[in-house]
Design goal:
- By secondary structure, this protein is an alpha+beta fold.
- Strands 2, 3, 4, 12, 13, 14 and 15 form a seven-stranded mixed beta sheet that branches. Strands 5, 6, 7, 8, 9, 10 and 11 form a seven-stranded mixed beta sheet that branches.
- The longest helix has 17 residues.
- It is elongated.
Length: 335
Amino acid sequence: MMMEKVLLSIVALSGLCAVSSPAKRQYHFVYDLKNMTEAQSYCREKYTDLATIDNMEDVKILNNMVDLNKMVNADNSHEAWIGLYNDLDSWRWSLSDTSFYKQGETEFRRWGSGQPNNLKSEQYCAQMFSSGQWGDISCESHLKAVCLYVRGPNVTFILINISMTWTEAQSYCRDRYTDLASVRNMTDNQKVQELLSAGENVWIGLFRDSWKWSDGSNSSFRYWAAGQPNNYAGKEPCVAAHFDSGKWEDYQCHIKSAFICYSPPTTKQVIKLSLLKENPSLDLNDPAVMESILKQLKQRLKDQGVNDDIKLSWKKQPDGKVFHKEKKKDKKDEL
């Protein structure tokens, strides 16, 4: 009964004193060897997802956390999967206006045999061959382009006889027409193909978003090792951090490796409490008394709908004590 009265006084007289600085996500090393897909599933089941890394501070945190003695990968290397991957299927059209496409038309593709192969790293743009089939190629290549001109229901394709990079071609088409050509179906494909001479290949408006994070984060931070990503043999779309330096390399996704998960950040609040003792002899710095108050506080918070995962603890003052008797104000100070 006495402890209940103390608790009621705490709840009635408590006030927020300070809030900690913004919290960081929590990282978790897992040293079981799994391929990228297995690691992603594990992280999503046990935590939130594979690790997203935002800056050099995160890199330093991971370098300090890793236990190299537990990292026994098959080839005795020290890499661990993170959440970055090269989305080989993330092709989309330069013209993003959804009203231009009927259902399913944004997904129309006519890739040639073995395409897209990203055989050389950074093949993020699409070309059409005179055969009417498509292939991927570096966006820095110089090709002629086919522009799209939309006027109401009328759609026209225009061949531009100037060699340009894909980005230059996109700007050219947007300045003078509507955009680089979107090929929505076999009818569009035939119209573009008819503009080409034998052996000619041209830019169309299809391009690929490249590196993405497993959790959908838009973090643009990259920490590649020298010469990386190299997409060796066109088959390395997954990324691991190598813990001789923490720098990243692209790997084949089937390789078994340790990996890093993350969970949501935790927040910390510091609360200043004023207590009114019903019993003057009660020692609030008694560990048993402090523990009892914490338990009752947590129960009250839970009853009010606060997450049950909340952790409460006392903050000691420089003299090692938690509670101090409040000094009475001098009447002169009140005047």
